[in-house]
Amino acid sequence: MRCSSVLAVSLAGLCFIASSVFQSHRASAASEFTAGQKTDIEKIIHDYLLSKPEVLKEAIDELDKRQKAAEALSRQKAVNENADKIFNSQNQAVVGNPAGDVTLVEFFDYNCGYCKRALASVAKLIENDPKLRVVLKDFAILGSDSVETAQVATAARVQFTPQKFWDFHQKLLSTRGHINKAQALAVAKELGADMTRLEQDIAKPETAAALQEVNKLAQSLGFDGTPAWVVGKESFVGGLPHDELKTKIDNIRKCGKSEC
To answer: Is the dihedral of CA 161, 167, 173, 179 positive or negative?
Structure first.
């Protein structure tokens, strides 16, 4: 849709909203206005917005600001309500310092291009921040190959040490192109996994339950893509660069919020 069309639609919508709000506030005195007077009021609002179109942009910006604030508040509430499963579930991988003073949670998909690019940032954070605890959650949303790969990773986590799983995670996520179960199994085998046990663990209901737990958490947090992050009591979606992630972590230490 062209910009002019967007403005026209937005203008019409705002005129309708403004008129509706005005009428709702005057509902008790609605009988005081004739149909013609109501039409005149709507025309005044319409003409005012046309003569001062900057008000339209201000209104749209304010609406966007309020929507984002409402979403952030909703996610913060979801973090508080699900904190134990987000930060301390037995169905997750913990890398970095398990006793770190700040926890960074990443919801990822092994076939997510942004997650692949984010791997270097997370690795750098772990390398340079000895007090950082990182939680990895398999949020497999990019098809059946992603789900099957996540099943292998979940089973591998059960038998690997945290460091060995981190090696597995880095090697698999840094694989170029599309990733499937066969590639995940090959990486696990290369790192010394008991393949018989791995296949058995893949088929266990606990594996499916672990992935379902992540899906439910993501839904409660309003995540519909990867990577998605939780740090402190706040959550974010998107491929945040290293410096932005580091700043958020530093701010959590400094003032308890991602922005001080």
So the answer is: negative
